[in-house]
Design brief:
Elements: E1 5-8, E2 13-16, E3 24-29, H1 40-58, E4 62-67, H2 74-83, H3 87-104, H4 120-132, E5 136-139, E6 142-145, E7 169-170, E8 182-187, E9 196-198, E10 201-205, H5 207-219, E11 223-229, H6 233-248, E12 253-259, E13 262-264, E14 267-268, H7 279-284, H8 289-298, E15 305-306, H9 309-329, H10 340-358, H11 363-382, H12 388-405, H13 412-418, H14 430-445, H15 449-461, E16 464-468, E17 474-478
The structure holds adenosine monophosphate and zinc ion.
Length: 479
């Protein structure tokens, strides 16, 4: 097995991944808060999780990956109360949309996708454990974590604990960085808001305790990897460590990974700034799922990614280049034979690809290895120097890359149709397209170029791309 090295926020170093259970990686990633549709900033982080899990699997690891769905928090409770529905009714639509979005972006489902509301008992038990160790106090029906009692508080974010107003309480799940106080493990119910009757009283869990309880329930006391967006380092992950380590007495996660922001004009894409796009917004503008996936994965996760129209255009053409390359490799006219030099060239690309990803998931370098190979093999095909065994080997390499990249299969139109986009463009069935192409070929044969051009235009207007090949046949695909 190749050594995989990852940047650990906890130690500020790139470290080899050494799982607790050899051959198996147990990881927890913080999932969506389903109070609204996820935006593509969120999906930058979810695509990063997906690259991580696909790469680990491609290297032969078994995975036990848990990603929570936060279906109770301040925002959900407030929105549901405002809408006059219960929280399950409120979140159902967004959970469905999130799962749909995951499929659309080819995000593999984690092994376990637990919902917070289905684990209230585990959270209560964890709070009881902390109370037994005198780490909590009650105030106004809420239960707070006393951070002064946890000497390692601040180790992940390197926050200055001295400057904190210890003993002051904060009720919000998310708060400003300078507003650092003891945080709520359990929140007393407010009039009109959803609550559970439990052994520790009526109320609902704080956001941080949800993740600690679900992570340890499914993965044990010590996880190999815990990951999330960089905005979760403090306070969310700091608080998870305080809860979990105080309760179990063991280190909570060996490696902490954090992905950087997707930016719009220099600012974090976020709901509160209003500078966000959902996947649906981009599909409505005619962008494809594969374009968005490619764009989000193309910049290594620890670098900020500026979201621009130009970036989308480039991503789309990059995906097309890769797909066209594989199409070309599949043409039957390649002569029989095998060339050891070409085989070596392909092997090198495979090694470079894996080495780049093993180096803290450097997707930019991994993609460079793929595009360099495509360029070299395309050049060989231009010279008619590529032979069949090599073409097959190159196809196999591309398929291997695609286990991680997941952009080669041309199913964008189908996905968009399922989601209700592009229906007008996709009116033509394959049989109709074939008939029009036959008619166009016939028109050209009669030298009726006006008619031939009109048909090409009609097909283009219906979102169909034609490619006239050298041997006179016509290939086509949905744009
Ligand atoms: P939330 O649904 O708000 O809990 O966020 C889900 C995930 O998206 C978290 O891991 C966040 O860190 C991440 N996230 C939120 N905004 C951005 C952004 N602009 N760029 C990258 N990740 C983000
Ligand atoms: Zn979390």
């Amino acid at each position: 097995m190749i050594e995989i090295r990852l940047y650990n926020t906890l130690t500020h170093r790139v470290e080899p991944l050494v799982p607790v259970h050899p051959g198996e990686v147990r990881m927890y990633t913080c999932g969506p808060t389903v109070y609204s549709y996820a935006h593509i900033g969120n999906f930058r982080t979810f695509v990063f999780f997906d690259i991580l899990r696909r790469f680990l699997r491609s290297q032969g690891y078994r995975l036990m990956h848990v990603m929570n769905v936060t279906d109770v928090d301040d925002r959900i409770v407030a929105h549901a109360a405002a809408a006059g529905v219960n929280i399950d009714e409120y979140t159902a639509k967004y959970i469905t949309a999130f799962l749909e979005d995951m499929r659309t972006l080819n995000l593999e489902p984690p092994e376990i996708l637990p919902r917070a509301t289905e684990h209230i008992e585990d959270m209560v038990a964890l709070i009881e454990q902390l109370t037994k160790k005198s780490l909590t106090y009650e105030s106004g029906g809420s239960v707070y974590y006393r951070i002064a009692k946890f000497p390692h508080y601040g180790q992940l974010s390197r926050i200055d604990v001295q400057g904190m107003q210890v003993g002051a309480r904060v009720d919000m799940d998310r708060y400003e960085k300078d507003d650092v106080r003891d945080f709520a493990l359990w929140k007393a119910p407010k009039p009109g808001e959803h609550f559970w009757e439990t052994r520790i009283g009526p109320g609902r869990p704080g956001w941080h305790v949800e993740c600690s309880a679900m992570a340890m329930k499914y993965l044990g006391d010590t996880l190999d990897i815990h990951a999330g967006g960089v905005d979760l380092v403090f306070p969310h992950h700091e608080n998870e460590i305080a809860q979990s380590e105080a309760a179990s007495g063991h280190p909570f996660a060996k490696i902490w990974l954090h992905s950087e922001y997707l930016l719009v004009e220099g600012q974090k894409m976020s709901k509160s700034l209003g500078n966000f796009y959902t996947l649906r917004d981009l599909f409505a503008k005619g962008h494809k799922p594969s374009t968005i996936r490619f764009l989000l994965l193309s910049v290594p996760y620890r670098r900020q990614l500026n979201f621009t129209e130009e970036g989308l255009v480039q991503a789309r053409s990059s995906v097309e280049r890769l797909r066209n390359f594989v199409d070309r490799l599949r043409t039957p006219k390649i002569p029989v034979g095998s060339n050891p030099e070409t085989q070596k060239r392909i092997e090198k690309a495979e090694c470079d690809f894996d080495a780049a990803l093993a180096d803290d998931l450097n997707t930019a370098v991994a993609l460079a290895a793929v595009f360099d190979l495509a360029r070299d093999i395309n050049t060989a095909m231009d010279r008619e120097a590529l032979v069949q065994q090599d073409a097959l080997r190159a196809i196999a390499a591309m398929e291997k890359f695609d286990v991680v990249l997941a952009v080669l299969v041309d199913d964008d139109a189908e996905k968009l149709r399922t989601l209700g986009f592009g229906a007008a463009q996709l009116r033509l069935e394959a049989a109709q397209v074939e008939a029009l192409i036959a008619e166009r070929t016939e028109a050209k044969r009669r030298r009726d170029f006006q008619r031939a051009d009109a048909i090409r235009q009609q097909l283009a207007d219906s979102g169909i791309l034609l490619e006239d090949t050298k041997d006179g046949s016509v290939r086509w695909k949905y744009k």
